[in-house]
Records
---
Amino acid sequence: MNDISSHPSNAISLSGVNLALGRGAARVHILRQIDLNIGRGEAIGLLGPSGSGKSTLLMVMTGLERPDTGSVVVAGQELQRLDEDALARFRGKHIGIVFQAFHLIPTMTALENVAVPLEFAGARDALQRAEKELAAVGLAQRLHHYPAELSGGEQQRVALARALAPDPALIVADEPTGNLDEATGREIIELLFRGHRERGTTLVLVTHDTELAARCDRVVHLHSGRLDTAMLHEAK
Amino acid sequence: MTALADTREAWRPDIWQRTQLVGRLAWRELRGGLRGFGVFIACIALGVLAIAGVGSVAASLADGIGSTGQLILGGDLSFALIQREASDGERAFFNDRGTVSVAATTRAMARTSDGRSSLVEIKAVDAAYPLFGTVVTNSIMLLPDLFAQKDGAFGAAVDPALLTRLDLKTGDRITIGNIAIELRAALTGEPDKLAGGLGLGPRLLISEAALRATGLLQPGSLVRWQYRLRLPSTDTSDRAVTAVEKAAQAAFPDAGWEVRTRSKASPQLERNVERFTQFLTLVGLTTLLVGGVGVANAVAAHLARKRDVIGTMKALGASGGTVFAIYCGQIVLVALLAALIGAAFGAALPYALAWAFGSIIPIPVAPSLHPGTLALSIMYGVLTALAFALWPLGRAHDISVSMLFRDQIAAERHWPRRRYIIATALIAAALAALAISTTYDHRIAAIFVASAIGIFVMLRLLAMLTMAIARRLPRARSMVLRLAIANIYRPGSLTPPVMLSLGLGLALLVTVIELDGNLHRQFTAALPERAPSFFFLDIPAADADKFDAFVRDRAPASSLERVPMLRGRIVAANGIKAENLKPAASSRWVLQGDRGITYASAVPAGSRIVAGQWWSADYSGEPLVSLESKTAHDLDLKTGDSITVNVLGRNVTARIANLRAVDWENLGINFVLVFSPGTFGGAPHSDIATLTFADGGTPAEDTAVIKALADAFPTVTAVHVKDALDTLDGIIKNLVLALGGASSITLIAAALVLGGALAAGQRFRIYDAVVLKTFGATRGRLLCAYALEYLCIGAVTVLFGVAMGTLAADLIVTRVMEFAFVFVAGQAAGAALAAVTVTLALGLAGTFTALGRKPAEVLRNL
């Protein structure tokens, strides 16, 4: 499959992306000449060893890190053209993020955590929608629990509901099972893929787990900041 | 894309919706509790408590003075005349408008039969006295009986202090002037005492008839005649009071009296309360400023704890501005809570004061809530919190979401965006403007604000400099020293918070200590070598030469200076009425009430001409006046301008011939206004004189002169300079005590900030201690290293604090109070030592916890 060509049906289009971090002698080239197109509704597994630049690539896709060179287009929007606040608004509307460490807001209940992105987006029925999303991930009985009162798996389900709540065009998940036991991890992955299938959302999944990556439509390998074109393959 | 996403594209929140969202999220975040805000809340609450408390007490005192105006004044209106009684016309005017009571006050010498004597403040009253309130004595006798002439002596009620001083008891007799006075009762309550102002001796209450019999009433004697008027019960409204006042001024425009009404019974007292309130308020502001450091630390620590949450919010669509608004909202809420706590305690202070000390405070207290004062103090608190919080809050704008993906060891240090820097500057400016505009003396407030900001900035620079020097020091051989030095400059070091909080608090304390020491020295210890031993008042002009000869004979080694003395009020300058003149605060006193004036043919001792020419010795032209140069500057007057004074009911206008610089410190006879001879024609007056012993005089010489003079000139009043200064010193001691009390609140705030900063650094201390112990460091060596670190930071801070406090006191003493400054080392050293000890104690108290932690327990949780 040729990933270099850009197409209007692409959800994400990276072209000639380079990124180095640090200064002087400590400067490290993290991403080198990345070209990658991801179609709408496609699920991509991003594989690679630690330090290969997976998380950084995810940050570039979500506008959290600006590349030194190259262009990043997400949902038809060139991210370099947006300032920081516009990027934040863009993320709130179009991108749902699932972190390895959940990153729930400890002072808010599960319901409020899920409602936050909807509230930022101005939804008047934020709490009702959040309740439905939590019910969808099996937490209808835990709406008013604080993160500290939830297990790791439940916390990640809340985080997933939060990412899905605004119906984003793109879901990025950074090793979402990394902090969970195997069984709980499987449950989360099922929920993640179900959300992707049912809503037609584009999914980018960063993982070490080749088995899990294989469930995606496509797997992309990253080595020392470069896409390993030899290993670029259709997973299914 | 779904329906939600489509509707969101068009959503542009208005300000109200945005505020609601921000408020909601801020509130949710705060529900987690106020952990970490303890020092923040305590600091703001303390500062607001000081300001609200001082303001509420002052307002309650003002209310007390206002609501008891008739009592304090002794009537609905009071007309005071100096050196002359009311004319028949004036008395008729009073009698037509209500009930009149006259009270004459003067100073005199009370002598015992065995030759001991003491200065007394005489108040001679008529039968109508008091028009309001009651005189309280330890006797059941009615006032007419108490004052009546019996067995060759008039009666008196006397301040118990005189009984103690002269070792007398009720029933004993003293001599005043030419007559015997029987002390029939101890005076414990005098309804109109406050209106009299500061007295140099104990009160002696006698009848008007007794005063007339003493022989003290000579032409020109310094007697203050007060005519108190009680309006008829048919109309006692404020309008009626004003109408009488206006009618009196219209009927007797040149009377030269000082008219007071019940609503402004004691403007001087009110001014003094206001002025003192200003100083205490400024001290309260310093508390807030010191507390601000605690606020900044608390906010920075709070945001550091919330970095993940902030990052998450930004990942979920919050802009930097929204994040700022959410956390700023929280800080405002917490600040408001803290300010409300402080204001509540401050509001309760007058009630507590009235309950605990109401019976012994000489000024009436009418406790009540003062919403304006409380609102102002709350505003101070919230503005201070914002001024210190905006900087760290501004940094939160730029917290990056990427740290959620990638571990970051330390928060990046960067300047906040320009808008937050500008907002910080604007709030600081608003705070300064508020402080300056709401205080009595804008100049002093401005100096204070500028000094506080200056010291604050210098302390911040000092912290940076200290850290930079520590960083560049050569590597020490000793591990203990190396660790101590490294701790001084490492990120998150205690150097800036300790220096800012302790430095400012100590500077204030040293300022108060040095002011206290210098004022005390000025009034007692440091009497100038050539300071006179005595002031003699009311020397009859006719007996002046006899008086001189007598003194030269009895005290040949002394020098005597005698000048004529009249009392006069400045009523106009360059034709502008005194009430319309706007002098600088430092010279307002010149226009308040009557002043001593004199005339002379030569430049008075202790003065030198700085502008214009002194008149010739035989000058006999138009009235000329020599004006003290600072007063001239404050009143915007120069040579050639005119001044009108009212003396003995006559307006005299004189041209300013020259300006004089006066050395007030030598305590000699000096006047603001010295007129050319002949200005007052044959106006009756008495002389005043100073007696200075060449060698300063001994108590025995003092007693001998007093006794001899009292016998020979019974109507002359001798004021022992040292006693008078002791009285003043006692009053100033109490004022400084109050100032010191307020300053101690600042020190508590400083200790809180210090404690907070040390607690915040505790996590790093434990980590350090555990790691170092793992690699073989003993607790003793670690303790030495930490002690050395605290000692270094404390010592630098203390040196700077003492230097700044001394400088501030020097400026106040030399520029505002205008006398020479002397560094009082003892107490300043004590404060410095205490500050270093507190730093060490607080620091080591926390360190013991760090040293006590078991390495394994901590390492397991790292």
Note: Residues 41-66+81-234 of chain A form a domain with the Rossmann fold fold (CATH 3.40.50.300).
---
Amino acid sequence: MQQRWGLPIVAWPSRLRPNYWDGIALPLVLGTLVLIGWASRQMSVPYRVGEALPLSLDPSHLPEYGLRTVLRMALALAASLVFSLAYAALAAKSKRAEKLLIPVLDILQSVPILGFLSITVTGFIALFPGSLMGYECAAIFAIFTSQAWNMTFSLYQSFLGVPQDLREAARMYHLSPWQSFWQLEVPFALPGLVWNMMMSVSGGWFFVVASEAISVAGQDVKLPGIGSYIALAIDRRDLAAVGYAILAMLVLILIYDQLLFRPLLAWCQRFKVEAIGTDEIEPPWFLTMLQRARLFHLLRTLLDEIVSLASWAAKRARPPRARLRRHPFARPRLVDFVWNGLLLAGSLYAVVAVVRFVHAEVGWQEVLHVFLLGLATLVRVIVLIALAALIWVPIGVWIGLRPRLARRVQPVVQFLAAFPANLFFPVAVVAILRFHLNVEIWVSPLMILGTQWYILFNVIAGTLALPTDYQFVASNLGVSRFLWWRRLVLPGIFPAFVTGAVTASGGSWNASIVSEVVRWGDTTLVATGIGAYIAAETETGDFPRIALGITVLCLYVLLFNRLLWRRLYNLAEERLRLD
Amino acid sequence: MPDDSRLICAEKICKTYQTAETPGRLVLDHVDFSLYEGEIVAILGKSGSGKSTFLRVLAGLTPPTEGQVAYRGQAVEGPAHGIAMVFQTFALFPWLTVLGNVELGLEAQGVARAERRRRALKAIDLIGLDGFESAYPKELSGGMRQRVGFARALVVNPDVLLLDEPFSALDVLTAETLRGDLMDLWVKRRVPTKGIILVSHNIEEAVEIADRIIIFGSDPGHIRAEIAVPLARPRDVTSPRFQQIVDEVYAILTTVPGREPGRRGARGTEPVGVGYRLPAASIQQLVGLLDAICAAPYSGRADLPHLAESEHIEDEELFVLIEALQLLGFAQVAGGDIWATPAGRAFAETDLQQRKQIFADQLRRSIPLAAHIRKVLDERPGHSAPEARFLAELEDHLSEEEAAEVLQTMINWGRYAELFAYDYDRGVLSLENPT
């Protein structure tokens, strides 16, 4: 054991002596610790139902509110990470669990996120009586639901895709299942996971704003945060405050981007198995600091020691007995049979229960009505995606053909996608009121305000990926403008476009709940649609109707994805892939 | 032979691949094999002969359906300590540095850090990687990557080294250097390894390295022949004795079983069924090779090792092409020589349109699958049939992937011969060409 600890101490003088970077690193680390400590104490202050929380529109409070919003975000992200690792690992390792977990995940993914909030908030409040913690948990849970599912899917797919030869190498060199999970599977999944985390956080900002001001079943709680600040600004018709909130959000997202995602993305490069594309990422300053400052070297050395000690201890405790099952295919058929039977019975029971519940509480007339409302929202989504495509495809192609410009535009677009569009809703309402516009039509663009950027982003990426040779050929053959679009560009960017459009349409469905009903002071604009229905029922706390609305919305999303997007996706995969 | 000198002993190994839907497909059929202390054994065979599967059975990576593998008398029921493997694709962890990759096996064994570092550096030094300790695999060339693969294997001081085509992803020069370095370590006993099994498809490589060559036959995989290589090291690849052994191996590997000269039926009457696994030979290469055989300096008859060298064809590719030429009745092979049949000569001497005609005739005559597809298309009212139909038929004999590959080859040949057309979008075979 002496030797185990020998090395870092020997290396101390050269490797761990402080340098200039530590000058930035040390205050940053200490400051963060203090802030986190303070903010988390605020979360669990005593609170009695009905009490009004002190909230002020004074911009000097914004840093504090911002910090608490960020903390909620971070907690939700951490929870999502833990959840997705466990869920994906289970689904990837056990065939039986997979049969249940993956369809469930597919459905969870299409449940509108604010739907989760309306259903679970009462439970969370009951969990922490007399404390603000229940509300905090509900808000964090809502953010969690906006982040966890796609991270889980990404991890699950990566776990399944670990190359066979690496798996064999891990087994050949006797890595225990625990070791190969952390040394092989998780590292392999990291690039995809980080990318999805980034998308998740982008979506998360939207729901942070929407979930801080909880108004469910007559309760109206505004947790201190940027979302509540803006809700208050809307109540008081304070356009200047809305501006401050937008500014504060900009700063927050910029900080997240600079301190978390730029470094993570750059650091992840090394985990890519194939060196696809040579888009060298410039090392972000924060990563440079992490890598240079000796403080972090010290921390890392310590962490390494702990990890290796832990795995060493695990090894001691349970010597590996790598045994092969003689006949891996002769699984106990009976167990499989019973398990499948259980799954089938369970889902049948669920269907029957839902039908009886809805029938007893609501009646079929209303079910039909809700389906029609869903149709209205569906029409909105389709029209908006088409419009967004008409606008952004030409612009995206134009940018994508200029790689230098594209490199500068891409981070901006990513940033726009992350920006919670609901902060701009009040501005839209003011405009609609001022110009006496048709509510049914002019509320619709709000649904796609935040998600249209995914289309632009992917179209730019798709155009960048088009081999320049193709363009040379086209100009060499003297292809006309029309043919150039039809034969080269549109097929070439199609796969990327579909990816972007899928994301955009999913986001729009989700946003319908907040964008079909918009407020400004005591003026409320309502458009016809399933989102408005769910929002209204959530306010009154009519549980059966909330459930009905969410189920129908869920069905629409599932069918829409199956019937349209998945087909387009397969078409793109099979026919139009460039390789 | 005394039992204790046997490092690995495999008895009556059978391996069946089975999925929930299809009945089992035999990949290995009663293979008996022993590795003795102090020897290098090379396993040669065409792709699909189960040689890689066999190596994985020996490694304990996949269990045999029947039979027993023992390592030093102990039944192998999982990757055994003392057996290390080097992979064709290197299988390095891209997020670990060279040092990290080499240390991996030791870390898994729970070797203390300082000891780990010392042994890893020694292995890195041994294989000629010093200076690259902190490099990531991505930064290295193929040859250097495979050196990391070797260092990772050697650092655990393996008793037995399993090499799964370790040089086949490398260019010729690099492969030669690495092979030389490995043999140097072996001959000078600088590694404690007692036995090596090399899976390869490069005949010369096998003859250069091995003390014994095992040749696998296909469908299902079985041991077809065993050749001893009693040559002193270092071996002179230009010596007549060396060349003679190379010729001998070529002769065995290129003869389609059941097609040896002198056996009944020259062409067409052979037991090549509809479900025969057609070699995935490209038309361009087939035509090129046939042209080369018929032209000077070979003028219709060529020595296979020479032909491979002059046409720059890898052995594995060569086997595929030669099998296809034989199946199509364009050439015959015996004793390491290949010669063109009258049909082959006629093909080589004529123009493009005539060639297509000859190719079509040979297809219908010699390839039952081609004849079958054509017959179905002729009989169906719309003269078209979905590919799924033929795939299903092939899957009676082959695995799903193999069936798809065979049909793909068939479609390529059929399209060239204008025997039938294929619509990719609809997945339909037909007699019509687009108008």
Note: Chain B touches chain A through 42 residues (CB under 8 Å).
